């Protein structure tokens, strides 16, 4: 089946070519970073985690969101999702691989990555995150392969895959919970030291991930004869809506606790994000765009007619995705570091090489999604090549 | 197998490529010389352990020393050869005698094409500016 | 793909994994032990220590310069100096009073305290949040004497410990430290780009019965180092006789650097 990714029309290969070019540039930048050190990024003594780790955090959420199609179909027999679970699983595989790549490029000594396995450390959440992500990748590869092969043969999948699929449901929740645990247990960082961080992560994941899945399903429908069906799209849209409502509610809860208590340690980080602090306001415009997009998305998604109409649904999903990407992929991580534990306001902005490496990793994800989706579509006969 | 000859030709090319370093060495007139190690300039009669054992296993010794010093905080090593007590240190003990890295350590390492990165951190005696 | 070709690829893949796994197993397998021996017990067995530091800000004038003391540490340990602030690496430095003790910040602090620079360094906490998060135990608390140690051979440079430290005590090597060193002290290694470093209470000097470099460089007893388990130590005497504060005490980290303010 893998060979199906190696044949295609001119548009396919042009797209692959563009992705490979972006990846090539990123690899070059990374080799420069490997030689010189992470000094070529915008990171500093005070802001030690930035764009790379923020992308990792966001993408773990996207990876976990596959559970939002798997759970209804396999646990509740929601037949409408039957055709798109594979799209969710393939997206999860691509997202997890991107997560691992973002970690890899962020490490100071990537050649020592196996130390995490040679010296397992159960009291470290990062150890468990590695285990969880690795396990999730194995689960999704196994599940998607076994179900694909079964479809290819025109037979039902073997019975033993069912418990594996059921395992992937709590596992998906756990990968994003443990990622939240990386942040939420740190006495040094009051901005993240909140019990609602893990629920917030999950809510935003279950909004952004299915929103992306809806957009991908529409793209797939454009380029092939595959139609996920009205019912599946509507159900996904409802999931996105509820998840986004809950996520916005959680954000408002955080704002209340911080702003009403008026404790400087908590207030200052939100001030930095939304109004700037001591002249440092790089993120403020981004955060307000995120707020605006969230509001737009809620209006479009809560209202049934705009949620049902495809043009407005697409706008709503794009708005959700970008709003939550800004929230997690820009705001959340960086604001944990400003002000510093010593109360100083420092500047961080990613450098060009940092962005090019990140773009290349996204291109790898896009490449994986493209190839895997192509295989799935062709196996099902939706692509006439 | 109509295209069988392609496979045979491919295999033959592969074997030639893979064995080319050996063929090159066999055919070249000048043999690569066995590395000649310069003994310690301070004339110390013995190493921390037996020289033949060291040649084979100095990396194991250094790894053990590294973990014991850094992770257990113990620094005294009693030589199995002489009973002398040494400070477990690459820079201070090993290179206290083998002070010229080029004439000792690098000779074999270059010959064997290994590049240990110990000296990215541990300071060679000659290197102090 | 036809069945036999797939079978061949599966077998080839399994073969590669098996060979790689075999090689890995051999690498991890027990190697012959060195013929010699290491002292079988900890030095001075049976004595447990708790190293700590008392910084006596009252022992020196308000505008006392800590530069020489800082230099003693950084020189002894090949701590690099870079012109770019974002690459900065430091083991001990000074902060203004509000930054060192944010919980003591108030608008009417005495001029004495306001003008005074406070030396800060790793507190070698008794309940360190940094060691809790390290995924490889490249940093850990020594049970024998409480020092929070660094293993630069094992550190993967994830910087999680830097994130977890409430005091900003840790630095990461964003670039090759040797580019920031004019002179190298050969008795101590440099580090390489990609690992985190911090003060280690001069554990290599303590092992030889010496004081930490910063304490030794003090001429007025402004930094005193000693064993809290020893009731007769200088640090214990100072703690009995003077009021001291610690940095961010409410976090439960139990820092072991005490400040006489």
**Beta-strand residue fraction of chain A:** under 5%
CATH architecture of chain C: 2-Layer Sandwich
* Structural class by sheet pairing and helices of chain C: alpha+beta
| Broad shape of chain A | globular
Helix content of chain A: over 70%
| Count of structural domains of chain C | 1
Helix content of chain C: 25-40%
Count of alpha and pi helical runs of chain A = 14
Characterise this structure.
The complex is a heterotrimer of chains A (385), B (129) and C (261). With 385 residues, chain A is an all-alpha fold. Chain A has a single domain (2-379), classed as Formate dehydrogenase/DMSO reductase fold. Helix content of chain A is 72%, strand content 0%. Chain A has 14 helices and no strands. Chain A has helices spanning 10-36, 51-64, 67-76, 85-106, 115-118, 125-153, 161-184, 197-223, 230-261, 264-274, 284-302, 304-308, 310-335, 352-379. Chain A starts with 9 loop residues before the first helix and ends in a 6-residue tail after the last helix. The mean pLDDT of chain A is 95. Chain B is mainly α and 129 residues long. Chain B folds into two domains: 1-32; 51-127, no CATH class. Chain B is built from four helices and two strands. Chain B is elongated and about 70 Å long. Chain C is α+β, with helices and mostly antiparallel strands. Chain C has a single domain (51-260), classed as 2-Layer Sandwich (Alpha-Beta Plaits). A three-stranded mixed beta sheet of chain C has the order 9-2-10. In chain C, strands 3-4 form a two-stranded antiparallel ribbon. In chain C, β5 (139-141) and β6 (148-150) form a beta hairpin. Chains A and C meet through α5 and α6 of A and α3, α5, α6 and β7 of C.
Topology (SSEs and partners):
The complex is a heterotrimer of chains A (385), B (129) and C (261).
Chain A: H1 10-36, H2 51-64, H3 67-76, H4 85-106, H5 115-118, H6 125-153, H7 161-184, H8 197-223, H9 230-261, H10 264-274, H11 284-302, H12 304-308, H13 310-335, H14 352-379
Helix pairs in contact in A: 1-14, 2-4, 2-7, 2-8, 2-13, 3-7, 4-6, 4-14, 6-7, 7-8, 8-9, 8-13, 9-11, 11-13
Chain B: H1 4-27, H2 51-72, E1 76-78, E2 85-87, H3 90-97, H4 105-112
Antiparallel strand pairs in B: 1-2
Chain C: H1 3-28, E1 37-38, E2 51-56, H2 67-76, E3 92-96, H3 97-100, H4 111-115, E4 117-121, H5 129-133, E5 139-141, E6 148-150, H6 160-164, E7 171-172, E8 196-197, H7 203-206, H8 213-217, E9 223-227, H9 234-241, E10 257-260
Parallel strand pairs in C: 2-10
Antiparallel strand pairs in C: 2-9, 3-4, 5-6, 7-8
